[in-house]
Amino acid sequence: MTILQEVLEYNETFVEEKAYEPYVTTKFPNKKIVILTCMDTRLIELLPKAMNLKNGDAKMIKSAGALISHPFGGIMRSVLVAVYELRADEVYIIGHYDCGMSAVNSEKMIEKMNARGIAPETLDTLTHAGIDVCDWLRGFDDVNESVRESVDAVRNHPLMDENVPVHGLIIDPKTGKLDVVVDGYKK
User: Fold this and answer.
1) End-to-end alpha-carbon separation of the chain, Å?
2) Which range marks the domain in which residue 128 is found?
3) How far apart are alpha carbons 69 and 39 in whole angstroms?
4) Could you tell me the CATH number of the domain that includes residue 147?
5) What is the dihedral of CA 114, 98, 55, 80, to 10 degrees?
6) Total-model pTM
7) Are residue 134 and residue 147 in the same domain, yes or no?
8) 127 and 45 within one domain
């Protein structure tokens, strides 16, 4: 049985037994916050529990490293939609210790792409189109600095309401302890 088949089989039972009922909520976050965090598997349940969040309390956006790599990319658009359309009044950027993005080596990732069939010519085409693939794939050296950069990207975005607090935190993926890097209430 494939993973997809397992998921669909479970889902059929989930729906038939109305196991979704405890999770019913609206599209508007109860605590009026939007969180950008990492896609790390350790944070799926830990982060909401560590923040005392239940289903419906927050808008949750995930990206590798909780990075905003482009001021007009999908991550920033999602933050703006949460603020202007979905009633989020605060933004939380939450990185974590022991993040995989701190160990990303762009050149080695490109080697893995080549090994899986991405032709070197494809990378050459991107380079000729002005895309620095190594830079685009790069991670970060310091999670504190990375969180600060993402906070600054949101806080200083030309379309962001300057009255919306933008906080930066780092979570320990072993214990759930949150460390404040940027207190968005202090400008």
Assistant:
1) 54
2) 105-138
3) 15
4) 3.40.1050.10
5) -70
6) 0.93
7) no
8) no
- Residue 146 and residue 175 in one domain: yes
How far is residue 51 from each of residues 13, 26, 33, 101, 168, measured CA to CA in Å? 30, 20, 12, 23, 14
Residue 6 in any domain: the answer is no
13 located within any domain:
no
* Chain centroid to CA 138: 16
Residue 63: enclosing H or E segment and its boundaries? strand 58-63
Number of domains the chain is built from: 2
Each residue's pLDDT, cut to its tens digit, for the chain (187 residues) gives 899 999 999 999 999 999 999 999 999 999 999 999 999 999 999 999 999 999 999 999 999 999 998 899 999 999 999 999 999 999 999 999 999 999 899 999 999 999 999 999 998 999 999 989 998 898 899 999 999 999 999 999 999 999 999 999 999 999 999 999 999 999 7
State the sign of the Cα–Cα–Cα–Cα dihedral 41, 89, 30, 77. negative
- DSSP structure class, residue 117: T
Q: For residues 166 and 93, is the Cβ–Cβ distance under 8 A? A: yes
Same domain, 61 and 148: yes
147 in a structural domain: yes
